[in-house]
Amino acid sequence: MGNKKKITKIILTVVTVTLFLFTLFPFFIVLINSAKSSLEIISDPIAFPDKWSQLFVNIKEIWTSPSIRYASSVYTSAIITILSLITISIFSAMAAWVLVRKKSKMSTFVFLLFISGLIIPFQVVMFPLVALFRMINEAIGLPMLRTFHGMIFAYIGFGAPLAVFMFHGFIKSIPLELEEAALIDGCSKTQIFFLIVMPILKPIFVTISILNAIWIWNDFLLPSLILGIGQEIQTIPLAIAAFAGSFVKKWDLIMTAVLMAAFPIIVGFILGQKHIIKGMVSGSIK
Amino acid sequence: MKRSLALLMVMVLMVAMLAGCAQSVEEDQTVVIYQNKVEIHEQLTAFAALYEAETGVKVTVKTSGGDSPYAESLKAEFQSDRQPDIFVIEGMGGYNTWESKLTPFEGQEWMDLTTLEFVVDGQTYGFPVAVEAWGMAYNSDLLSQAGIDPATLTSQEAYRTAFEKIDSMKDELGIKSAVAMAAGPDMRWVTGLHNFNGYLSAGLPYGDTTVLDKLNNGEADMQRLTEYADWVELLFEYSDRAVLLTGNYDAQVGQFANGESVFIHQGNWIDPWLVSNGIDFPMGFAPHASVKGEHDSIFIGAPSFYVINKDSENADAANAFLNFMATNEAGHNYMVNEAKMVPAFTNVELKPDTPLSANAAEWLAKDAKYTWLQNDMPDGFGMVTIAPIYESYAKGDIDKAEFINQLALKIEELK
Amino acid sequence: MNRHVKDKLVFWLFLAPALISFLVVVVIPFFMGLYYSMTDWTAVADLKANWVGLENYKAMFSSIPFQYSFIRTFLFTLLSVLSINFIALTFAFLVTREIKFKNFYRAGFFIPNLIGGLVLGYIWQFIFKSVVPAIGSLFGINFLEELLLLADPNLTLFGLILAFTWQYAGYIMMIYVAALLNVPQELLEASEIDGANFWQKLWNITVPMIAQAFTITSFLTLVNSFKQYDIIVALTSGGPTTIFKGQTVNSTELLAVHIYNVAFKYNNMAEGQARAIVFFLVLSVVSIGQVYYTKKREVEM
Predict the structure, then answer these.
(1) Could you say which residues from 117 to 146 on chain A have a Cβ atom under 8 Å away from some Cβ of chain B?
(2) Would you write out chain A's pLDDT as a tens digit for each of its 286 residues?
(3) Would you call C261 and B384 a contact, using CB atoms and an 8 Å cutoff?
(4) In a domain, C37, yes or no
(5) Are residues B271 and B313 located together in one domain of the fold?
């Protein structure tokens, strides 16, 4: 019995490690090719680089490239990502809570409206959206395009459906007694939400924030329409796009750029790994 | 108390969201140029800075790159609050799309210095960005090693003989195939636009648009199309399958740069790639024999043009900037030495120092040129409509007869 | 203030920020799009759109590339859902077993999810085009060395599914892990004492417990496969070509890409918009049907 368990364990470990290595193989490819010149990549894409110091040459080239503006782009991406995360989560939680607690035809309708947003493909709305943003500026003089707030506003709109959906599912499972007790104690609805419900929602906040962070950090098509390519405000994916011509693919520098674009979020993930995984696991199912 | 606090918090968040980062940028004092060449973005920006130092007028360079093509980004750009003052069109296809936004140039100095400007109905609408040339570029070393004189390559028959000979000497020359040609999904501009231009203008006098006019009326010249298909067959037959079917720009240029092919079906824009990878073997263009008969020229033209936005409030400043580029020495230096382009202006005395551009300038000087007409086809016809047919043919999904047939069908659909 | 009115006020105040952004960003543009789909709209600003009725919809149904794209999208979606869920479930089983460093592996399986579709497409394009042949020549495997994966329509679809699975399985795994951890340990132990074997335990206890997770995962994988855009654009650009009903079509130009191409490459925004509307309708029917079906199964279990 004990022997059999041991063998099972060894087999499981071997299988896991194999799959693990296979999963990480593409990163390995990116890493070794980041340290090559483009001719070197074409001659042999799986050999180790002639000299690793080329990596720093490439990194320096990306770092100083006036079209990438690495530091400023990372900063822009970070600002947009963080502000969007916070606003999407709080606003969606607020919406989901009242939608769960208030049972009416209207709340069902609004909820279904949000859910329908889950399956509206981005392609359907993108050009009308840009047109609408422009109309807003013409009508009330509030520029939405090429601005931080326009970008974040768009993310709230696109992020709300999933967040509302997830909060909705989670809030349904919170027993009503807690809130009723608070109501009897004389708390207002607003207090109940911010003081009692919000803390319970913490795991789902983590989950949603992680999902949104991954999405927003990597998003390309939406910012390319709202912020535009090659403009003052540019996120990391836009920077990479501005750098990688459609006809000219400098694989060496693209690989390096890929590495540098993924670096902040992977570091973030590794640092917060414990919480993130816990958040994902506890939040994703409820 | 707490309730109002919470409400306040929400309000603050909303206000922060809506107004927090609003900034009024005074960009109307500047000229905005929205262009499509990622490879010259840095050089053009530097030139714009120089221009500002010289004249005090700020010019902002915006560049669309990546995999969303310029034509699409431009449409998005025009939907934004601040439209560019100068943008780029490529031939009649672009003109037809943007007609309502264009205004002709009038009385500009540069207009007398070029023959390559973009003209519709006698009105000059486009400033030629650069002269580009493409065709069958060859590696001189390998070609002489194979005992072939590029001057003899003037007909399809001559090319076939040369390819056969080279093919039989593969090991000796250390090559994978005679030609580096690409017809895969990434390279539709090579087949659907450049290669197809061989059907449109090869062998015809410069500026002759009879074949193009027929095409735009939905009429295919079957005789010419059949001859042209022989040329496509020849190229596909003597190219490396991996590069042909799945290769991207790097793979195609890389094959040539590595000395693994004697010819490459590309243009002088590959120079920066070659230079930055330290390639220095001698090379040049051979005549483009894409239909029957004798040929003595290569394709030379200005494929893209700067145009002025009709609604621009800075049209004068924009005009001044373009004029400066064409007439001032700093502009010439930018075009030739920085951006590595071949200028379309007769007053430029600087000579390009990169191999294919230098060779292209020689062809231009002896006036041995065929017209670029591929950008005058309807928007999307080359890359979207017909390029996939080349890929099917390259893969062997269809034979030559079917290839001709499908091209003819697509042309007829233009009626 | 009347309590009822106050309740209503709270309701709308709480709803307002999310709802307003959602309306402005998604709902209103959606209806604008619906209108545009019945005009001859092009994206060149200031050109007035003229009403053309259902012309754009008619053109769509007779379009051979559209028909082909439709079929391929269904195939891609079906295979992706299967592949992603299978791999994700395998990962989830492995990392909830008694093995060392399981958190480490979990993180590893999840990491590809941090990479955006565009970037990921470039990476895999590079792998399929350059790395696979290089591996072939390293080990002397001629088949791999000469394999032009991205030149064969079926292999390319497989390649897309592989790349998408690589990206998405780690995320779906997390949902399964959560479900598996929810399976009460006591129940498993009790059934073991009752003499249940591994498969019986799996079928009778574990599967019903993850049925709820399956509703979510199949929904997510279905919708995201159907909407796939970034990876395709960067990995295959819609290619390679194949022959369908005697016409050359792009074999991986799945619906989302097809819509984009019709709208922007042909400069026919209105027709693209019409296809987008149909795309949306089909996606809604399929995904709502799926949720309904799996929910029903969930209850039965």
Answers:
(1) 127, 130-131, 134, 137, 142-143, 145-146
(2) 567 778 888 888 899 999 999 999 999 999 999 998 877 887 788 888 888 888 998 899 888 877 778 889 999 999 999 999 999 999 999 999 999 998 889 999 999 999 888 878 787 898 789 888 988 888 888 888 889 999 999 999 999 998 998 899 889 888 888 888 888 888 888 888 988 899 988 888 888 888 898 889 988 888 988 887 777 788 988 887 776 654 456 677 888 888 888 888 888 888 887 777 776 666 554 4
(3) yes
(4) no
(5) no
Kindly list the distances between the CA atom of residue A215 and the CA atoms of A220, A274, B304, C178, C255, in Å, as whole numbers in the listed order: 9, 20, 36, 21, 21
- DSSP annotation of C47 reads P
Residue of A nearest to B81 (CA): A134
Give the number of beta-carbon pairs within 8 Å between B and C: 105
CATH code for position B317: 3.40.190.10
B249 in Cβ contact with B187 (< 8 Å): yes
Residue C31 lies in a domain: no
Closest-CA residue to A217 (of A126, A82, A68): A82
Residue B136: its H or E element: strand B132-139
Same structural domain for residues C22 and C94?
A: no
Name the pairing type of β-strands B369-370 and B298-301.
parallel
Same domain for B146 and B200? yes
Looking at the structure of chain B, the number of domains it has is 2
Check whether residue B167 and residue B231 sit in a common domain: yes
CB contact under 8 A, A230 and B257: no
Tell me the C-alpha distance between C264 and C241, whole Å: 20
For residue A190, give the chain B residue with the closest CA: B3
Q: Is A190 on the interface with C (CB under 8 A)?
A: yes
Residue C108 within any structural domain of the chain: yes
Domain A65-283 classification at class level:
mainly alpha
- Å from A249 to nearest chain B CA? 6
Domain that holds residue B256: 134-300+371-412
Hey, which residues 184-203 in chain B have their CB within 8 Å of chain C? 184-186
| Residues C17 and C60 reside in one and the same domain | no
Residues of chain B with pLDDT > 90, as a percent, come to: 59
Q: Tell whether B254 and B188 lie within a shared domain.
A: yes
Q: Dihedrals φ, ψ of B122, to 5°?
A: 80, -5
User: Left if phi > 0, otherwise alpha if psi is -120 to 50, otherwise beta: which for B91?
Assistant: left
Which residue of chain C is at minimal alpha-carbon distance from B83? C45
Number of domains in chain C: 2
Contact residues, B window 89-118, toward C, CB-based 8 Å cutoff:
97-98, 100-101
Helix (H) or strand (E) holding B179: strand B177-180
Q: From CA C196, how far away is CA C64, in angstroms rounded?
A: 55
Query: What are the chain A neighbours of C7 within 8 Å (beta carbons)?
Result: 102, 189
Who's near C11: CB < 8 A, 6+ residues apart?
Answer: A98, A102, A107
Task: Decide: B125 and B104 in contact? Cβ < 8 Å.
Answer: yes
Question: Does any domain span residue C41?
Answer: no
Domain that holds residue C5: 1-26
Residues B168 and B193 in one domain: yes
Q: Is residue B363 part of a domain?
A: no
Domain with C147 in it: what CATH number? Answer: 1.10.3720.10
What is the token pair recorded at B379? 């928007």
Min mean pLDDT across A2-6, A105-109, B17-21, B175-179 is at B17-21
Based on the fold, state whether residues C128 and C259 are members of the same structural domain: yes
Residues C196 and C252 in one domain: yes
Q: Which residues between 92 and 131 in chain A have a beta carbon less than 8 angstroms from any beta carbon of chain C?
A: 92, 94-95, 97-99, 102, 107, 110, 113-114, 116-129, 131
Answer whether B71 sits within 8 Å of C264, measured CB to CB: yes
Q: Do B96 and B38 sit in the same domain of this protein?
A: yes
Reported pTM:
0.84
Q: Indicate if B220 and B290 belong to the same structural domain.
A: yes
